[in-house]
Amino acid sequence: MKIQSKQIDNLCFIATNDSGHGVVMEGQPPEGHAKRGANPMELVLMAAAGCSSIDVVSISQKQQQKVRDCQTTVTAERAETEPAVFTKIHIHFTVYGQDLKESAIEQAINLSAEKYCSVAIMLGKTAKVTHSFEVINEA
């Protein structure tokens, strides 16, 4: 895996992977300037949301669950002193579909948290990572 980061200007950068996919990231922009990208710590939480969501949907599909949508909200707290690492991270899943079994969704979340989501497991080495979920069965 290889990522390259290139300065656009001031504290704004674009990072790209070997496939050419990129993401804009930015520190605090100068006064009066709009922010053009997420900051690096926000990107870490986005990665945790993406990684765990992919796992939950993939595992649920293998369990024959009819997932239509999975929305994930990640909240976090950081240390008050530098380095301001994450100390608490909470990942909440809202899973929509038909005839979903709460036990199957819960199992998918647990497997992601304990075995498959490399991002959340890595973050768990320095922060307390918790999970919650709700299942919305649609007609």
Written as H for each helix and E for each strand, in order along the chain, the element string is EEEHEEHHE
Global morphology: elongated
Strand content: 35-45%
Bin the helical content. Answer: 25-40%
Overall pLDDT confidence: 97
Report strand order across the widest sheet.
Answer: 1-2-3
Please give the structural blueprint.
Blueprint: E1 3-9, E2 12-17, E3 22-26, H1 40-62, E4 66-78, E5 86-98, H2 102-116, H3 118-123, E6 128-137
InterPro entries: KH_dom-like_a/b, OsmC/Ohr_fam, OsmC/Ohrsf
Pfam families: OsmC
Protein name: OsmC-like protein
Written account of the structure:
With 139 residues, this protein is of the alpha+beta class. It has 2 domains: 1-38; 40-137, K homology (KH) domain (GMP Synthetase, Chain A, domain 3). Helices cover 32% and strands 39% of the residues. The protein contains 3 helices and 6 strands, in the order E-E-E-H-E-E-H-H-E. The protein has a 3-stranded antiparallel beta sheet with strand order 1-2-3, with no helix packed on it. A 3-stranded mixed beta sheet has the order 4-5-6. A hairpin with a 7-residue loop joins strand 4 and strand 5 (86-98). Helix 1 (40-62) crosses helix 2. The protein is elongated and about 50 Å long. The N and C termini lie far apart (43 Å).
